[in-house]
Specification:
The complex is a heterodimer of chains A (303) and B (355). With 303 residues, chain A is mainly α. Chain A has 14 helices and no strands. Chain A is 70% helix and 0% strand. Chain B folds into two domains: 230 residues, P-loop containing nucleotide triphosphate hydrolases (Rossmann fold, 3-Layer(aba) Sandwich); 110 residues, OB fold (Dihydrolipoamide Acetyltransferase, E2P) (Beta Barrel), CATH 2.40.50.140. A six-stranded mixed sheet of chain B has the order 6-7-8-3-9-10, with helices on both faces. Classes of the chains: A mainly alpha (303), B alpha+beta (355).
């Protein structure tokens, strides 16, 4: 029988090679962790689950007491009601969704188109009082919308921007440009300026150098920044409710809020509309999640 | 190929910082000219102004016979190598090399021929199909050099090209750059903060400080007779010992009594500082002929030599370079004496060379 040297000279039984249990706790600790996390998850996710359930319940099940968790008839009528009214035409709610798409989309594009070159300029060029300018730009974000909404309302009424999509687009762009500049400046700082220098020596103008060499390297950052800007514009409620009055202009957040407050509330419709409202941002964030993570961590790593 | 003339260059940024106060340079055709100085001295700004990447506030730049003040970088017919190489990350080595040529619109056959030639010169054959992120630092720098020389420019501008390489590779690349420049005979302006690089590469060195030229000269001139206290303290490792001296009995004497041979034509109406290289001093047994008493503060054993820091009763300790066979322990009482010829002497107020 072959005996290995280790065994032969081993003073006692072979030691246990399994990794030692985690020092504190062990099984009991795991149970507590799981329990706490489960409670937290339930508290956080229950409203969402309940919203989803409500949106697919018939009205009498919605109001059933005791509440029905599982045995109810599934219906998609509420989702249909979000878009199609009883006469077969589009609902005002569907118009609000379209308004939201236009307002959020255009303001995000504008903020990106204005903010990225500005960030590039602040990163690359020596500008008089650069720090003060950047601080001023940031300071426009210090005040929450609700503080400035009254003066803006008065100004908008004077210049004819009240109750227009353009008005909302402009105010959202104004709120997103500072954010875009600050986010993007970090990303531009990370891209060595030497690429542009080299390209300029190779025969390109400064703008061509930016367009051909720096911009492609900024795309992950632009994606991350644009998603944040989009989420802000999409979710924004205060400006939307103060600066619009007609259904033709109103965006989805105030329109959905408007569903609540009559003598009867069609909770099924509210829930369905809320889900339709939440989906685009979720889907969009999921699609660019790789860039989002890269975007959020990129700034933290030095060359 | 062409020389480069820089006259009364001044660069002030919009935020008020002055990067270059006043720089005049006359760089000869085919010369390897090094601009040396600490960070913030204006050397890189000067180089970038020559390249056209910065517009000077005032002053003229000529490359060859052309006044290039208003020419964009691409039309100055120069190539630049950067500290971070700046290889286009999405292009293979081959395309990185061909890129400036294609931008010029050269015919395909000539592009290929020139790329092949540059690849051969810099021995890039096996790397031609790799992208920059698959190259080591040294390889990237060789590609960057090849990309500069593929254009056959009138001048090379090098912005601290070796700073990011490790010490061994740096020495190799230094040799390579010097050899290459000699072979091509192209004017090269080389910016560095590393005095060893400057001394070993440059035909001439310009030492810059606070946006001004402190001294221009060959490496030997710069080493032997630094033009100012700044240059004296900057060149050499360890740097010159700066010793306050007075003329007495035909000798320059420090407060401790250390005697130095005075240079001729010494002005007597001001306070003087002598610059003494560590190798022009000698640590002796205490009481040796012509020595002043001192004490070893520390001894650095560098393998081929020992640097002694000696306290000789003056305000500042002096550093002395000695061969390995002369050994004194720390704290040992010793003698200190001067063995070299007349040292350069500086005015303590203007900090400039007076004799």
């Amino acid at each position: 029988m072959a005996v290995s040297v280790d065994e032969a000279v081993s003073p006692g039984p072979v030691r246990d090679r399994r990794p030692p249990r985690r020092r504190s706790g062990g099984r009991g600790r795991v149970v507590i962790e799981v329990a706490v996390l489960a409670v937290l998850a339930a508290v956080m996710l229950f409203p969402v689950l309940w919203m989803i359930e409500t949106s697919i319940k018939e009205n009498r099940d919605v109001y059933a007491i005791p509440a029905k968790f599982f045995d109810f008839t599934v219906t998609l009528d509420h989702f249909k009601d979000v878009f199609v009214d009883s006469g077969g035409g589009p609902t005002t709610l569907s118009g609000s969704f379209l308004n939201s798409v236009i307002v959020a989309g255009v303001s995000t594009v504008l903020a990106t188109v204005l903010g990225v070159p500005a960030a590039w300029a602040y990163s690359r060029f020596s500008v008089k009082a650069k720090k003060d300018q950047l601080f001023f730009i940031l300071s426009t974000r210090f005040m929450p919308p609700v503080v400035v909404v009254i003066p803006i309302f008065l100004m908008y009424r004077q210049v004819g921007l009240f109750d227009t999509k353009l008005g909302l687009i402009l105010i959202y762009t104004a709120f997103n440009v500072p954010f875009t500049i600050w986010m993007m400046k970090g990303f531009v700082d990370e891209v060595p300026a030497e690429y542009e220098d080299a390209a300029m020596l190779d025969g390109y103008t400064r703008l061509q150098a930016f367009w051909k060499f720096t911009l492609p390297l900024l795309l992950p950052g632009i994606a991350a920044t644009a998603v944040f800007a989009l989420i802000f514009s999409w979710n924004e409620f205060v400006f939307a409710i103060f600066l619009t009055s007609s259904d033709a202009v109103r965006t989805a957040p105030p329109a959905i809020a408007g569903l609540i407050g009559g003598t009867t509330v069609d909770w099924g419709l509210v829930a369905a509309a809320s889900i339709v409202f939440a989906l685009p941002v979720l889907v969009f964030s999921y699609l660019v999640r790789k860039h989002l993570v890269a975007g959020v961590t990129l700034g933290a790593v030095r060359r | 190929m062409a020389g480069i003339e820089v006259t009364t260059l001044h660069k002030r940024y919009p935020d008020g910082t002055v990067a270059v106060e006043h720089v005049d340079l006359s760089i000869g055709d085919g010369e390897l000219f090094v601009m040396l100085g600490p960070s913030g001295c204006g050397k890189t700004t000067t180089l970038r102004a020559i390249a056209g990447l910065e517009r000077q506030t005032s002053g003229d730049i000529r490359i060859g016979d052309t006044l290039v003040n208003d020419l964009p970088p691409a039309e100055r017919d120069i190539a630049m190598v950067f500290q971070f190489y700046a290889l286009y990350p999405h292009l293979r080595t081959r395309d990185n090399l061909a890129f400036p040529l294609r931008a010029e619109g050269l015919p395909k056959a000539e592009v290929e021929e020139r790329v092949a030639e540059a690849a051969r010169l810099m021995r890039l054959g096996p790397l031609l199909d790799r992208r920059p992120h698959r190259l080591s630092g040294g390889e990237q720098q060789r590609v960057a050099l090849a990309r500069a020389l593929v254009r056959r420019p009138r001048a090379f501008l090098m912005d601290e090209p070796l700073t990011n390489l490790d010490a061994e590779l740096r020495a190799d690349m230094r040799t390579e750059i010097k050899h290459l420049q000699g072979e091509l005979g192209t004017t090269m302006v080389y910016v560095t903060h590393d005095q060893v690089e400057a001394m070993s590469l440059g035909h001439r060195i310009a030492i810059l400080n606070k946006g001004r030229v402190e001294q221009i000269g060959t490496p030997l001139e710069v080493y032997d007779r630094p033009a100012s206290l700044f240059c004296a303290a900057f060149i050499g490792s360890p740097p010159m010992n700066l010793i306050e001296v007075e003329l007495a009995d035909g000798k320059l004497r420090s407060k401790s009594g250390l005697a130095l041979t005075p240079p001729p034509n010494l002005p007597l109406d001001r306070s003087l500082i002598a610059g003494v290289r560590p190798e022009a001093l000698e640590v002796t047994e205490p009481g040796a002929d012509g020595s002043v008493p001192g004490r070893v503060v520390s001894a650095e054993w560098l393998g081929d030599e020992i640097i002694y820091v000696v306290d000789h009763g003056d305000q500042r300790d002096v550093r002395v370079r000695m061969p390995l066979n002369v050994r004194f322990a720390a704290d040992a009482p010793v003698g200190l004496r001067h063995t070299g010829g007349p040292p350069p002497v500086y005015d303590a107020n203007t900090e400039e060379l007076v004799a």
